[in-house]
């Protein structure tokens, strides 16, 4: 193909084509007579060069793209950032022209504004804002799911008889609604400068939601599996209560959270997703200390497996971290019983008004029966296993320290609150 044909197909001048050849952006073969013979691949290369030049890339940058194609997105994102800055400067110049017209020769305030605007601190701050990556659609939707929590919580408490809870839920839902509205307004306003196309954003969203679903399944499946293993290890035919430690669950959650961070970092590397790039350093640390990480995971599983109390009609088996095979108590080994409703909330371990039931043993140990797993004997009647146990243990005239104070803050159905009160009053 002759250069005249190339000019016609690419709409580039002969001078431009020679220039790109001189800069080694295209490689032209010669025929037997020594004349240049352009191919369809050369046409495609020239069209790409023309496109990149329209985007504002320099000759050196185009060479870099030809050598390393993965650099293209990064270079184009930088150009978008530069265009954003230029748009801001043009907008400021227009506003300044209007301000000069309005000032009618009185420019003192404008002189101060220009001095302020040209200060190093302001320019540094604006550059940081403009260089900040915009939110992706995936992150925006994920943030929306989180902010919908307080709003949905308000509707759940709407029919509740506790106005003090409803008030704070209402305040939180109003704040969440405001943040959500502003967040979507800013996102839609800035989306035209976004790094990803709508299709890519939806793909990222689907992938991340799939990851979340997988982790939810893993978490639920993990706890169900551990509970079933506890049943097989500790629950004999005569046992009807299996109580777990709430505190031990935190170790499992830490292990799961660290695994999730590692997965997000690998996702960021594989799909070039900048929003999760900050997790890469954490993932690298986990890789370097893989033995420590697996040790923590194994310790978490061991801790939750052994933090169990099993109760039958005549004995109490207390298992712990340092006593995995358990200590066997009889009902006569109980010094006193404490039960009632919590006065204050404590960092997700319990809320104000939650019911508690604790056994103070004669050897100084305290056994809590709050996190009860359903057994076949009481599977259709929640908390009745504690009511039954309380009726049996009180036959031994054990001291009970109980109070119905703060019962009004309990958020469970009235049938359960009534059951708690019957336990408290059973002395």
Tell me what you see in this structure:
The model has no long low-confidence stretch (mean pLDDT 80). A five-stranded antiparallel beta sheet has the order 6-5-4-3-10. Strands 9-8-7-11 form a four-stranded mixed beta sheet, covered by helices on one side. A two-stranded antiparallel ribbon has the order 1-2. The protein is α+β, with helices and mostly antiparallel strands. Helices cover 60% and strands 11% of the residues. Strand 8 (355-361) and strand 9 (366-368) form a beta hairpin. The longest helix has 37 residues, at 198-234.
Question: Radius of gyration over alpha carbons?
Answer: 34 Å
Helix-strand makeup class: alpha+beta
Instruction: Give the spatial strand order of the biggest sheet.
Output: 6-5-4-3-10
Tell me roughly what share of residues is in helical segments. Answer: 55-70%
Which properties best describe this structure?
single chain, 427 residues, alpha+beta, five-stranded antiparallel sheet, four-stranded mixed sheet, 15 helices, 11 strands, 60% helix
Sum this structure up briefly.
The protein is an alpha+beta fold and 427 residues long. It has helices at 3-10, 14-22, 40-54, 59-67, 71-103, 108-117, 120-131, 137-156, 163-190, 198-234, 246-271, 279-288, 290-306, 384-393, 414-424; strands spanning 29-30, 36-37, 239-244, 308-312, 315-318, 327-330, 334-341, 355-361, 366-368, 371-373, 399-402. Helix content is 60%, strand content 11%.
């Amino acid at each position: 193909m002759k250069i005249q044909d190339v000019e016609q197909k690419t709409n580039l001048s002969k001078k431009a084509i020679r220039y790109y050849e001189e800069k080694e952006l295209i490689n032209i073969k010669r025929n037997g007579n020594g004349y240049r013979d352009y191919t369809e691949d050369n046409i495609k290369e020239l069209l790409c060069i023309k496109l990149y030049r329209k985007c504002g890339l320099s000759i050196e940058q185009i060479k870099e793209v030809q050598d390393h194609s993965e650099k293209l997105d990064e270079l184009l994102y930088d150009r978008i950032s530069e265009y954003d800055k230029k748009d801001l400067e043009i907008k400021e110049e227009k506003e300044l022209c209007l301000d000069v017209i309005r000032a009618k020769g009185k420019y003192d305030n404008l002189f101060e504004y220009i001095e302020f605007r040209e200060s190093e601190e302001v320019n540094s701050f604006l550059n940081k804002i403009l260089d900040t990556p915009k939110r992706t659609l995936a992150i925006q939707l994920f943030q929306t799911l989180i902010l919908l929590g307080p709003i949905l919580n308000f509707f759940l408490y709407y029919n509740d008889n506790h106005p003090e809870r409803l008030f704070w839920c209402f305040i939180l839902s109003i704040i969440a609604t405001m943040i959500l509205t502003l967040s979507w307004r800013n996102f839609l306003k800035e989306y035209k400068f976004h790094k990803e196309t709508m299709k890519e954003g939806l793909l990222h969203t689907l992938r991340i939601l799939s990851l979340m679903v997988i982790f939810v399944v893993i978490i639920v499946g993990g706890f169900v599996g551990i509970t079933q293993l506890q049943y097989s290890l500790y629950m004999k035919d005569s046992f009807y209560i299996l109580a777990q430690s709430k505190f031990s669950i935190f170790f499992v959650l830490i292990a799961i959270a660290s695994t999730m961070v590692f997965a997000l970092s690998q996702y960021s590397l594989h799909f070039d997703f900048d929003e999760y790039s900050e997790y890469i350093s954490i993932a690298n640390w986990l890789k370097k200390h893989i033995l420590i990480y697996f040790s923590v995971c194994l310790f978490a599983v061991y801790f939750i497996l052994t933090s169990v109390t099993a109760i039958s009609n005549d004995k109490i088996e207390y298992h712990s971290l340092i006593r995995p095979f358990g200590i066997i108590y009889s009902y006569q080994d109980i010094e006193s019983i404490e039960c009632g409703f919590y006065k204050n909330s404590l960092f997700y371990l319990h809320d104000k008004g939650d019911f508690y039931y604790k056994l103070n043993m004669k050897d100084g140990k305290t056994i809590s029966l709050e996190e009860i797993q359903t057994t076949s004997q009481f599977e259709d009647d929640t908390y009745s296993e504690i009511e039954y146990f309380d009726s049996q243990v009180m036959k031994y005239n054990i001291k009970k320290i109980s109070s119905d104070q703060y019962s009004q803050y309990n958020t469970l159905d009235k049938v359960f609150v009534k059951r708690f009160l019957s336990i408290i009053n059973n002395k």
